[in-house]
């Protein structure tokens, strides 16, 4: 008997630093060629917060501290006949920059600090929801900086 297909859990790292956010241009499907937040699969025994920090380091060489969850995103692709090709549930994790200069690894074509206004207006081909997740991150970052709870 085969196991039923289930969504795969992933985590994305959302880093805002000095008026920029860190994005990668994906090399592989899904979203090949599009810009989005660094991230990947959550490993067994690993929290989504830990996965976001690990994937960020692996994909870009940047070190950041995960500070909390922003939202969850479903990425579901269906064939023309309605059959689900893949389903990822991504935990978007807000991270505080610590150190490092972005360098793309083999999963990414490029990694760069993108000005916030450019990321919000989509001046390059973006993965779905980058602007929405970034707006959430900016709202939380500003609240934390002002000391509000």
From TrEMBL:
<dbReference type="Pfam" id="PF00293">
    <property type="entry name" value="NUDIX"/>
</dbReference>
<dbReference type="InterPro" id="IPR015797">
    <property type="entry name" value="NUDIX_hydrolase-like_dom_sf"/>
</dbReference>
<comment type="similarity">
    <text>Belongs to the Nudix hydrolase family.</text>
</comment>
<dbReference type="InterPro" id="IPR000086">
    <property type="entry name" value="NUDIX_hydrolase_dom"/>
</dbReference>
<protein>
    <submittedName>
        <fullName>ADP-ribose pyrophosphatase YjhB, NUDIX family</fullName>
    </submittedName>
</protein>
<keyword id="KW-0378">Hydrolase</keyword>
<dbReference type="InterPro" id="IPR020084">
    <property type="entry name" value="NUDIX_hydrolase_CS"/>
</dbReference>
<dbReference type="InterPro" id="IPR020476">
    <property type="entry name" value="Nudix_hydrolase"/>
</dbReference>
<feature type="domain" description="Nudix hydrolase">
    <location>
        <begin position="4"/>
        <end position="138"/>
    </location>
</feature>
<dbReference type="GO" id="GO:0016787">
    <property type="term" value="F:hydrolase activity"/>
</dbReference>
């Amino acid at each position: 008997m085969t196991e039923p297909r289930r969504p795969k859990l992933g985590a994305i790292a959302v880093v805002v630093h000095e008026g920029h956010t860190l994005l990668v241009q994906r090399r592989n499907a899904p979203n090949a060629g599009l810009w989005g937040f660094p991230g990947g699969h959550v490993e067994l025994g690993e929290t989504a917060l830990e996965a976001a920090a690990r994937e960020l380091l692996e994909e870009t060489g940047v070190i950041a501290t995960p500070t909390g969850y922003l939202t969850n995103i479903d990425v579901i692709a269906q064939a023309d006949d309605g059959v689900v090709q893949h389903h990822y549930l991504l935990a978007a994790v807000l991270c505080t920059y610590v150190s490092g200069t972005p360098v793309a690894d083999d999963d990414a074509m490029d990694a760069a600090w993108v000005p916030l206004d450019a990321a919000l207006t989509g001046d390059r081909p973006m993965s779905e929801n980058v602007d929405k997740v970034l707006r959430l991150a900016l709202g939380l970052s500003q609240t934390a900086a002002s000391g509000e709870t």
